From TrEMBL:
This is Metalloendopeptidase. SUPFAM superfamilies: Metalloproteases ('zincins'), catalytic domain. Pfam families: Astacin (PF01400). The lineage of its organism: Eukaryota, Metazoa, Chordata, Craniata, Vertebrata. Its cofactor is Zn(2+). Keywords: Hydrolase, Metal-binding, Metalloprotease, Protease, Signal, Zinc.
Amino acid sequence: MSALRCVFVLLLFTLSCRAERRRSVRKDSEPLVIDDIAFDSELDRNADPCTSRGCMWGKSSDGKVYVPYTIAGHYTSRERSIIERGLSSFSESTCVRFIARTNQRDYINIQSDSGCYSYVGRRGYSQTVSLDKQGCIYHSTVQHELLHALGFNHEQCRSDRDQYIKVLWQNIQRGWEYAFDKINTLNQDTPYDYNSVMQYHKYAFSGNNRPTMEPIPNANVNFGQATEMSKNDILRVNRLYKC
Ligand SMILES: [Zn+2]
């Protein structure tokens, strides 16, 4: 992906930490889509506090974590195969198994709504993971949204992010500052990871074409350009779910 395209893709997908958290407390499956349309993305993989309160997916007696899914019929076969590749990628490195839903009560319902978004963690019953045909059909985005559904938040929302990222508040588009709020994440002894598929791009939510985040201590380090889950992303899934 070219850098430009990457930025574009990032822009289309992501959700702010708070917006996703808002979704995470909504009761129905129709999310408040107040943010996905124009921004960024890449994200994070830090466990949300809800994982301590029951939003994790259950573990089966065989040690696997089965997460049922449905995929809407409106995708082309190419789009569907990219989505399926993202779903199956978890089985290569974690104990999470996304499986086609039969009659399970709780499941993720993958569809092309507006923007790329997901609730954080298991909500109960059907929960939408939106992978918009316009801008969300990329391997990294599929993994990103699935990580949200498993209970992870954006990297730059991590409780320890101030040691690694300086938020340049003056460059953030007005009204979107909350996308950079910190969350009391459970970091599971894993390091802050600039290469996480959950790390926002440095121009995320910029209102003036200047960076909204600067890495610490080296301001020239690149970040937010992951094309797939990093080792730490995988490690976090395995630690959170005790794979
Ligand atoms: Zn996200």
